[in-house]
Amino acid sequence: NEFVIQGVPHFYLDQVLPIGLKIAEESEFSIKISQLENLPEHVNIYLYDKTEETYFDLRKADFKANLEPETHDDRYEIVFHNGEEPKEEASEKDDLELNIGYSYNTRELHIQNPEMLEINKLVIYSISGQEVHNFVEVPTAKLITLELDKPLSSAVYVVRAYTNKGVIATQVIIKQ
C-alpha cells in the first residue's frame, strides 16, 4: 500500500521519522518520494537502515529491498543527514535559554541573552522549514536587537541560534 507522511508540526534537520513495515510474503518493496511540498531543494532526505547502518538518498532514486515476512517496526527511518554531513549538536545543557521576541512596527528581533552566550549564527525558518532570514554577526550582549530588511508576516517561525554552548531552537509567533 502507499502511505503518506502528511506533515510534521515542527521540522528540524535533525528530525527522525520512523517507518514501520508489515511484510506478508517475501517480495520486493520500494520506498520512494513521489511528491514534496514546502521543503527546500537543499534539504537532503535519506532512508536509514538501522540494521545495516546504511543511508540511501531518496532524492536520487527509489529504495528497493526484500525482507522476511514479519513486522519490521524499528528498522527504517527517514532522516535528513547521512552520518557524514555535520549534524547539528544538541545543547550541552538543558537550561540554555534565549528569550526571543519580534516588534512588527520596527521589524526588529529582540533577544534576551542572560547568560551572554556567543551566538555564531541565528537563522529564522518558516514552520515549513524554509529559511527566511539569517544573521552571521550577532553581538554578545544581554539584550540584542537585530533589524530585518523586510517585515515578517503573521505566522509561526522557528529561530535557531548556533551558540558556543550548542544549538537553541525557539518558536516565535508573529501576530499583526
Describe the structure.
With 176 residues, the protein is mainly beta. The chain is 0% helix and 44% strand. The protein contains no helices and 13 strands. The chain has strands at residues 17-22, 28-31, 46-49, 54-57, 63-66, 71-79, 99-103, 108-112, 119-126, 131-135, 143-147, 155-163, 166-174. Strand 3 and strand 4 form a beta hairpin. The radius of gyration is 20 Å and the shape is elongated.
How is this fold's topology laid out?
Blueprint: E1 17-22, E2 28-31, E3 46-49, E4 54-57, E5 63-66, E6 71-79, E7 99-103, E8 108-112, E9 119-126, E10 131-135, E11 143-147, E12 155-163, E13 166-174
Antiparallel strand pairs: 1-6, 2-5, 3-4, 3-6, 7-8, 8-11, 9-10, 9-12, 12-13
Summarize this structure as a short list of keywords or feature phrases.
176 residues; 0% helix; mainly beta; four-stranded antiparallel sheet; 44% strand
Largest sheet: 4 strands, antiparallel
Net shape: elongated
Specify the structural class: mainly beta
Could you give the distance between the termini? 44 Å
- Tell how many strands the DSSP assignment holds: 13
Low-confidence stretches: 86-94
Helical percentage: under 10%
* Spatial strand order of the main sheet: 1-6-3-4
Strand content is 35-45%
Instruction: Report the total helices.
Output: 0
Order of helices and strands: EEEEEEEEEEEEE
Chain-averaged pLDDT: 82
Give a quick precis of the structure.
The chain is mostly beta strands. The chain is built from no helices and 13 strands.
